[in-house]
Amino acid sequence: MRTLTLLFIFLISFPLALSAQSAEDMLQKVSSAMAAGQWEQAVGLFRQAIQLNADKSEMFYWTNVSKSSDVSSKMAQELASHYKNARNYDKAYLFCKELLQKNPHDVKWLTVCAETEVCRGKEKEALQTYHKILSLDADNLAANIFIGNYYYLMAEQEKQQLERDYKKISSPTRMQYARYKDGLNRLFTDGYGKARGYLQNVIRQFPSTEVKKTLEKIKKMETEMK
């Protein structure tokens, strides 16, 4: 029985050891390709190494790759994509920022960065990133969708709070009612109105049923407030 147990442990641990060793071998090949100036081959081998062991590949990137070289950006892209697909959004964000240090106006990686910020629960940071994307590409669909929905949801929350506070007043005076209406008007301008502009940009590019429903709700509220 003890012999079978030892054999079982060996069979379980063997693939892991082989995988780690294979990653090291692959990274050695990456080093050789880089030394020979075979950059595309180096990136392809690095991609394979990431699949075998992402941690070892990341360490290789930080310690063996010159950050001033073009190949470093391609390797950072491979790591960012891998971590994003693996739902390791903290690491994906780290490599997105690494890429944006070299090219802060790269819309593709700004978009990936914004997506990872949302997944990390950093919606306000994502809002800023999406605004930057629109400053570079006004028709960017992902940015218009996020910003439009963000302003709409924030306006909805503020409206609900405004209504709750007003309902707490048992006998509102004319002044209190006027302040309530002013709050709604301001909210429509600063919240729903902003949302509408971005969501209309979405509809011009993509006939989203959900976006159309949201725009209809905004239009209905505008009619009721007049």
Task: Explain what the structure shows.
The protein is mostly helical and 226 residues long. The chain is built from ten helices and no strands. Helix 2 runs antiparallel to helix 3 and helix 2 runs parallel beside helix 4. The N terminus is likely disordered.
Per DSSP, the total helix count is 10
| E-strand count | 0
* Sequence of secondary-structure elements: HHHHHHHHHH
- Kindly state the mean pLDDT as a whole number? 88
Round the Cα radius of gyration to an integer and report it.
26 Å
Q: What is the SS-derived class? A: mainly alpha
Task: Give the overall shape.
Answer: elongated
Strand content: under 5%
Query: Spans of 5+ residues with little confidence (pLDDT < 50)?
Result: 1-20
The major pleated sheet works out as: none
From the N-terminal CA to the C-terminal CA, the straight-line distance is 84 Å
What share of the residues lie within helices? over 70%
Identify the quaternary structure here.
single chain
SSE blueprint and pairings:
Layout: H1 2-35, H2 39-52, H3 54-64, H4 70-85, H5 89-102, H6 107-119, H7 123-136, H8 141-167, H9 174-205, H10 209-225
Helix pairs in contact: 1-2, 1-3, 2-3, 2-4, 3-4, 4-5, 5-6, 6-7, 7-8, 8-9, 9-10
